[in-house]
Fold:
Amino acid sequence: MTTHKIVLIPGDGIGPEVTAAVRRVLAAAHAPVEWIEQQAGLAALAAGDEVLPPQTLEAIERYQVALKGPCTTPVGEGFTSVNVQLRKRLNLYAAVRPVRTLEGVPSRFSDVDLIIVRENTEGLYSGVENQVTDDVVMSMKVATKSACLRIARWAFRFATRRQRRKITVFHKANIMKMTDGLFLRCARQIHQHEYPNIEYQEMIIDTGCMRLVQDPTQFDVLLLENLYGDVVSDLCAGLVGGLGVVPGANFGDQQAVFEAVHGSAPDLAGKGIANPLALLMSAVMMLNHLADTREDAACRATAERIKAAYNRALQEGKRTRDLGGDLSTEAFADAVIERLP
Structure:
């Protein structure tokens, strides 16, 4: 059996606790991975290093896949976000957030099954801001044809590989005719010339958000530029129980970083009550990515076993406190391990 070396960033706050629980589940499932532990965030600063140390970045570049717990970036002290640095330095241009209803997790909707694909490098998040006068500041929204084509092609390829039926582009091209207009034209081009097999739809984002909360089952894959994707992905998480029950990943052409999308929750650190499910689901995404990119059937089989185990645990009422249960972090991991097929 091939063993894959994976960079592991435990993170800050509850990060080390949920990471330890996930490692334990993967070990019990005999996942073919070897962890290369590195630091980022406050943990790296405490060790006398940068918030994103060069050796951490070099390790991800070398091994190409990382699993990351939530990291804290100090506010108001001149530090750039760990997540922003990772995306820029590794050119992780595609952020992916699968969102689905989990039986046993209370939510307002049933049968939700969405994938949000977010362009991760441009838009208003490019950080191009200027002080025009003492009373006026300006932020520039950046869109390039190459990046718009790139994310559209990635989304259609991903949807085809995952056997999804439809891609909906949320936009505001009725107002931002140049930037959002370019994003739309590129999506249309990729659909028409490369992936006509996938149903294609365009929707103004305010209408799209209204329809999401009316009936999310009418959507399948959502493709959005950076800012819209950030907002809508959290909105969709709220449809199924919150950030504690959805995984996340950032993909580039060479590297991929899988992460829990919730925060580091320092007020909960050390109490043993954090929910490890989001990071565990992200680890399942990671195993499926290894199966796709390295043609390793063992990774796919392990991912399916872990998914079946946490689905069964939730169905049987095994939940942490944030989901209305009473299990500790480790007890939830135990519940999943006990149900591994």
